[in-house]
From TrEMBL:
Protein name: Rab-GAP TBC domain-containing protein
UniProt-recorded Gene Ontology molecular function terms: GTPase activator activity
Gene3D superfamilies, alphabetized: putative rabgap domain of human tbc1 domain family member 14 like domains, Ypt/Rab-GAP domain of gyp1p, domain 3
A Pfam family the protein falls into: RabGAP-TBC
Amino acid sequence: MMIWRDPGEPTDSYYQVRPEITDAPKTKFRIKAGKTLSARKWRSAFSPDGQLDISKTLGRIHRGGVHPSIRGEVWEFLLGCCDPRSTYEERAELRERRREKYAQWKEECRRMFPLIGSGKFITAPIINDQGEPIQDPLVLLETTLENGEGGAGTSAADGSGNSISRGTEDAAREKVPMSKKEIQWKLTLHQIGLDVKRTDRALVFYEKQENLAKLWDILAVYAWIDDDVGYCQGMSDLCSPMIILLDNESDSFWCFERLMRRLRGNFRSETGRSVGVEAQLNNLATITQVIDPKLHQHLETLGGGDYLFAIRMLMVLFRREFSFGDSLYLWEVSAEASFTLDF
């Protein structure tokens, strides 16, 4: 007797790939009725005052992931931004405080470099190691004009659309020596821009300049507040989903910040080696040796017994190995498996 199985609804419409991209990984994740956490099941898990019975949702997430239409709000709980025991009112107050804090940090960054929040970003260095300006940063803008060509302006715009002409804030700041922290931060801004240009470029979402700039802004602000890690290559891959899933920039930032609390060990190094990833590679080698000794021996024979080939996979949680949709499914199932009420 043949048993018919529902193949599920594809999710391509949620994370559209640019038509000219033909080598993007195909998404295998499907929305399956009765397995995938739906919007209806999600809403029914809340009490009248907004407390979430998280136990009603974790099983669904484990069996079939989260419906793309509610991923953003579900992830705020999975990543620990929101406490399931909190009420609607408490979460609204917390969200407002966080947005104010993010705005404060962003304004602090904008005062040091006016392109923060301007809708533009840079891809070339603006200072040398001594903190001396290399050239006018306005010449280095990464921008898109209506005709599709990059161009340079004579002034940048702040988040309110106000013109910031040369010779105002920058001229005043030139007289004040920069701290080592500020120099280090400014040295990373163009590297962030280069990585932003390469992140998820197959997606239609990033055809819009404003979305690229939003990713740059969040990573720039995070690099400023995290004195220990700052910015490292690979963080853009981890931050990108937050921007796509959540409309508000501040909310995206805080989800990324929560994710980095778990993963910052991957980006901390001692004598040039990643502390977190090295431990994971050792664990991977041990597990493979026990579960599949023949595979482990084969890798040893090929010279891959140190499992260094898996560094990128572990650093950015398989973002570059799988399609965007499949990597999100992997993330949320992993988050569900390790979820704890640790607030």
